[in-house]
Amino acid sequence: MALKRESARPIEAIEADLLLLLLRERYGYDFSGYDRASLIRRLRQLVDTFQIGSLVELLPALLHDEQVAQTVINTLSVPVSEFFRDPPVWKYLREQVMPELDSFPRINIWQVGCGYGQESYSLAILLHECGLSFKARLITTDINADLLRIARRGRWLANQFAQWRANYLAAGGRASLDDYFDAPGHDGDETMAIRAEILQAIEFVEHNLVTDDAFLETQLLICRNVLIYFGAALQARALDLFERSLQRGGFLVLGSTESILDRERTWVPLQPELRVFRKSMAGSK
Description:
With 285 residues, the protein is of the alpha/beta class. It has helices at 11-27, 36-49, 59-64, 66-76, 87-101, 118-129, 145-153, 161-170, 196-199, 232-245, and strands at residues 107-112, 136-142, 155-157, 181-182, 191-194, 202-206, 218-223, 246-254, 267-271, 276-279.
């Protein structure tokens, strides 16, 4: 009996699904909700990285070698970010959350998933403008050591800033975003570097939500567009971790499509559409 090839799915798509299934079942990372076109582009990068002919050749090593798995996860989980992305979230933080944080004698902030650092530096700028830098400790973490190294540099191409300037103003910025950067050099350098006082306000730390535990008591925890990569069990583990890390009355900010998994008794919604929650005063310490 002849096979009907015209209705068959492309081999690349089948191989991609097999790889994603292996990542989910073996390591707990669920990338199924990720933009498909972008995901396929990143999977093709893996073929070049490992110098193989097709994705299926990667599966045995991915199954048994955790270093290979980490390379794959790093490749697929590089976030797309920008300064003050989703301005209404940042405006709410500025107007509602920061005044509440000012009531704490010391403020510990944990930002999960640093990406290339734009969100981390947005937080540092916000703390500066709200007059809270002097009593705040801002720690940003990621599983990807390469991203942490890039983020620590605090340098981006000047031609990326048009959207970021608009975001900053829409988020209630009180000055000009450019005030926090050194202008491009005159020697052909087309990048803008974050000023030293903002750069030095952040601690960059390698941390894995899947294997590591809480490491400080926080009053604000921001984890946007990280949990979307996790299956239900890992999402639950991360939320348990956040509960242990956040002080009673502390604030949790998630990404626009992320859920607290029916934990309303722990996380009181403040702005559900912005995914801003407050830890119940009746919750654990």
